[in-house]
């Protein structure tokens, strides 16, 4: 047992020092006790207090720094969410503005899936037959034409974009009114080809390409894209026209489906700029003035008295011998 008591010599040494200090302080008066305590506190324990305070401050700064970093991360996430909401609100305001111009002809839908190809040849939207989305419905955005509905189920529909081989659109050049057909040619570039344009037709780079309304699927006047390059084919008879789509198909999130069974009018897209100055206006056509018929006045009938004519007396016949 004594072996266990004396095994921890450090504890016994500390205990002995504490006892000696206590007895020493008890034997002194109040004045020497105060001076001794002040000496121990400010001389012997001051470095220890400084080290402990420095460690405590360092630990406190560390945890405060961790809290600030966490708060900064939360604020950054909130800022990113607000920025994403701002972009989404701007996009939805554009869709709302377009749909309010003709609300009975447009139905909104959200893109829930897209094709695996890099260009985005097809999309899947969250509206189907129960929402009136049927095949061969035109799909568009405020920027321009997207494509058409290929097939639909009860709650979903597959959309072929302009960058799909099976999606051809009858179009018209806005400036020169040249008709043609826009179709995507095989390749890895998001470009369209304007086909069936004669070499004599007036088509230039920068011209806007709009839907012509021919074929009955796409409404007239929807922007398809702009002409980027015009060349004459090797045979010299046709032109090779390249068109850049107006829509970025890889970033689509919301679309509008044209419903021809609504008011019967296509969506009113921004008008194409005309060369005619604004001061030239068409003279108003005068409205026909209705004829005012004068009231008829009844004329009283006057009866004229008739005088009886006396009958002639019969004459005697005279015979000549």
From TrEMBL:
Residues 290-310 have a biased composition (Low complexity). One of its GO terms (cellular component) is plasma membrane. It comes from the Bacteria. Keywords: Cell shape. Residues 111-258 form the Rod shape-determining protein MreC beta-barrel core domain. Residues 269-321 are annotated as: Disordered. The keyword Lyase does not apply. One of its GO terms (biological process) is regulation of cell shape. Belongs to the MreC family. This is Cell shape-determining protein MreC. The gene is mreC.
């Amino acid at each position: 047992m004594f072996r266990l008591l004396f095994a921890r010599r450090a504890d016994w040494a500390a205990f002995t020092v504490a006892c000696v200090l206590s007895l020493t302080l008890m034997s002194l008066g109040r004045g020497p006790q105060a001076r001794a305590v002040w000496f121990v506190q400010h001389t012997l324990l001051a470095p220890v207090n400084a080290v402990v305070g420095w460690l405590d401050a360092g630990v406190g700064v560390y945890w405060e720094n961790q809290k600030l970093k966490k708060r900064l991360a939360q604020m950054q996430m909130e800022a990113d969410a607000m920025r994403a909401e701002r972009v989404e609100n701007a996009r939805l305001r554009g869709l709302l503005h377009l749909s309010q111009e003709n609300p009975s002809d447009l139905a909104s839908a959200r893109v829930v899936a897209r094709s695996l190809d890099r260009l985005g040849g097809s999309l899947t939207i969250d509206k189907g037959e129960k929402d009136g989305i049927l095949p061969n419905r035109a799909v568009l955005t405020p920027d321009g034409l997207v494509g058409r509905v290929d097939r639909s189920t009860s709650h979903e529909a597959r959309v072929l974009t302009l960058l799909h081989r099976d999606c051809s659109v009858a179009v018209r050049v806005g400036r020169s009114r040249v008709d043609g057909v826009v179709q995507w040619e095989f390749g890895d570039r998001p470009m369209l080809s304007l086909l069936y344009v004669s070499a004599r037709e007036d088509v230039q780079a920068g011209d806007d390409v709009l839907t012509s309304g021919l074929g009955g699927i796409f409404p007239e006047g929807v922007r398809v894209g702009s002409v980027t390059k015009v060349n004459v084919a090797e045979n010299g008879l046709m032109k090779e026209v390249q068109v850049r789509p107006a829509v970025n198909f890889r970033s689509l999130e919301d679309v509008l489906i044209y419903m021809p069974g609504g008011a019967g009018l296509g969506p009113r897209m921004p008008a194409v700029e005309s060369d005619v100055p604004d001061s030239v206006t068409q003279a108003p056509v005068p409205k026909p003035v209705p004829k005012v018929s004068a009231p008829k006045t009844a004329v009283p009938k006057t009866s004229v008295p008739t005088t009886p004519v006396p009958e002639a007396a019969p004459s005697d016949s005279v015979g000549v011998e």
